[in-house]
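In practice, a research group might receive sequence data for several interacting partners and want a quick structural hypothesis before committing to experiments. The following worked case mirrors that situation: the sequences arrive first, and a predicted assembly follows.
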Amino acid sequence: MASPRERLPGELVFSCLMLMMSAFLLWTAYMISGLKSATSAGSFPMAAAATMLVCSLIAVAQAARAPLAAGEPGESLVRQFFRRIAPPVLLWTTLAIVVYMLTLEWLGFVVGSYLFLIVAMWILGGRRIVLNLVVSALVLAAIYVVFQTAFSVVLPAGSLWQGVFK
Amino acid sequence: MSEALQFFFISWTDPKLIALAAAGTFAGIYIGAIPGLSVTMAVSILISFTFKWHVNEALVLIAGIYLGGVYGGSRSAILLNIPGAPAAIATGLDGYPLARRGEAGTAIGLTTVMSVIGGFVGIFALAVGAPLVAAFALKFGPRDYLMLAIWGILLVGSLSGGSLVKGIFSGALGVIIASVGLDPLTAEKRFTFGSVGLTAGISYIAAMIGFFGVSEILAQLHELHIKGVKQNVDKIIPSWAMVKKYLPLSMRTSAIGVGVGALPGAGGDIAALMAYDHARRTVKNPSRPFGEGAYEGIVAPESANNAAVGGAYVPMLTLGIPGDAVTAVIIGALYIHGLKPGPMLMIETPHLFWFTVGSLVLANLFLLLFGLTGIKIFAKVVETPKPILLPLILVLSAVGAYAINNSADDVYWMLAFGVFGYFLKMYGFQVGPVILGMILGPLMDRSYRQAMLSANEDVLVFASEFFTSPLSAVILAALTFTIFSQTGWYRRWRAARGAG
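A structural hypothesis for the assembly, expressed as tokens:
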């Protein structure tokens, strides 16, 4: 936006990361086929990466010029970042998602999803444990039946259980 | 003509397709209404499940979800003052004050009828306009397609109120993501970094679910504690006198909706805001002042956003260029089913076009039925607490990504794009253009190379052809204006003109 806006904590760092990523992508695009032809496999990706580079340069300049958003009195930039951009609930939820997705094939869809639902509901502030257990079970049963039958989706059975039930 | 009618009624005569239209519309209303669920998110997740289906079944379900979802957003805007979808932001301005006056039922009834009217206007425009646009689009050369695609990305980036620079960055990022893998013309490896897995490219469905599903959920974690005020809902079917009174405004704003929806990149949200603005400027004696519960303030945006659905289908089916983020996702679905949206789609597979029109009409009728019934249960469902709702969407997202290739790799991509998308959103980089860039990237790459080859790789000849062809010159002018209108100079000029 043209109107002056406040810079969020971490915005300048993120914009710089985007700039570095753009430069790397431009180099990688150049390495595809160099500048040998205007219609080579790398020509259009180079144009796209160059566009990213220019835009991210402007974004860095805009972020550097913008005044930093006011935090709470005596609050450091890092603390402000963790309060406004990456609060604990977000970090814990992201961790739960990462663990869930990494263990999905190992634990299987049913067990993995059930554990994830209960943990995530707890993290997000759902403190009625019995309700969480029941809702998770019912919804998971519905998802399982609908997706296995109507959508013919093969859900991971879980490599962990193959040895157990054989 | 009789053949067109025959195709039109395919979804009306097959019980399975009727059931899917009903289920899609019903689900769409709830998906659109529940804050935290978006139509784009739902369609992205759904595509991964329906790609094994027959194309007709997938299309009818998506049509229902799209129409229902655009409408559904208004309900939570009225009942909870939380727009369920961006297209309902304008509706809440007068809808919620109406609900606070105890007129939630009337507001919902009126929005339903006006949405259906808007929907029909949009579908009519699609049925009449698309064949004409498709015939005209045959004149388009690769250069024109390249510029139309760039224009679409620019519009998504700029009209959504974000920074143009960041919108362009996002669009270009999407183009890069789309080019990962083997070049379709020369089979050279692009951005594969020596990985065999990357030679097949990155699944854009995984990216879509990540950008629209996971990142949206992460963003919603900031709003866990926002609660709406519960409303009593009574009589919802509006009187005929009321419908008749607001019909002219509905028709006018539907026309705005069709026009905005048909612009590449601009969807129901922009249409609704423009229609609201139109109503505010042109209605001399509103039922109440705007912002305090004027019926005109809900009629205008609701007619426009549903009319924009039909409008958005026009560039999607005729040019292969999405009208908004949802149609970008639908284009992805069409590709999965082996179809190539564009002028040839209308010529080679007219049945598909008339089938789509028929399905939209059917879904619009179901919208009327479901919109005017079951409101009390509905009011309870939209109040589903986020601590329960958000984890469920994450599970559905994981299932959706896994279902693409029965592979955990797509789940990891989805997660990576989800987290990346969250930070992009937080720092003002829109994610809509990324998806548009991904969908349009291959078309842009191919069009650019074809245009350059036809100019014998002479950059000067290539550049001059943008001005020598009248069609290219017009598109270039529109493109330039879009960029220029986002600059400080233009804004200052407008402000000075307004003050003068």
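Before designing any experiment, note the following. Residues 11-33 of chain A form the longest helix (23 residues). DSSP finds eight helices and no strands in chain A.
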